[in-house]
Amino acid sequence: QVQLVESGGGLVHPGGSLSVSCAASGFTFSSYVMRWYRQAPGKERELVARISRDGGATTYIDSVKGRFTISRDNAKSMTYLQMNSLSPEDTAVYYCNAQVFGEDYFGQGTQVTVSS
Questions:
Q1: How far is CA 30 from CA 6, 52, 60, in A?
Q2: DSSP conformational letter for 25
Q3: d(Cα 107, Cα 42) in Å, to the nearest integer?
Q4: I want to staple 16 with a disulfide (CB 3.0 to 4.6 A). Which of 3, 12, 68, 115 is the partner?
Q5: Do residues 94 and 65 lie in contact, with contact meaning Cβ atoms separated by under 8 Å?
Q6: Phi, psi at residue 89, to the nearest 5°?
Q7: pLDDT for position 23
Q8: Is 86:12 a contact under the CB 8 Å cutoff?
């Protein structure tokens, strides 16, 4: 079955950096676009970044452009989100996502807290 497991969240000071990872299994990873979402307290889940199947194309929401970088390693079935210049507004639970056979799959999420 499809499984996505995020890791790497934590507490970071404003201006700091953090990288989160997602291990995928149960599907042909290299055949699917991967996405990172986040959900802040009291807010709806939002799409943050996406990466094409071969990693050659990436898109970001405006608020993270130039600060976040999404990447993937198809040999390891992993996707990553490198986050720099973090601000308290980036505090959220971060989820990776795959749409497999038309169904959305999310992991359990990893908490990222930006606070001084």
A1: 18, 9, 20
A2: E
A3: 20
A4: 12
A5: no
A6: -70, -15
A7: 98
A8: yes
How many CB atoms within 10 Å of residue 92? 22
Write down the pLDDT at residue 28: 97
CB half-sphere exposure, 52, CA atoms < 13 A:
6
Q: Are strands 110-114 and 10-12 parallel, antiparallel or unpaired?
A: parallel
For residue 82, what are the contacts with CB-CB under 8 A and spacing of at least 6?
A: 17, 19, 68, 69, 70, 71
Q: Give the per-residue pLDDT at 9.
A: 93
**pLDDT < 50: residue spans in the chain:** none
| DSSP-derived secondary structure for 10-28 | EEE-TT--EEEEEEEESS-
Q: Give the C-alpha separation, 19 to 34, whole Å.
A: 16
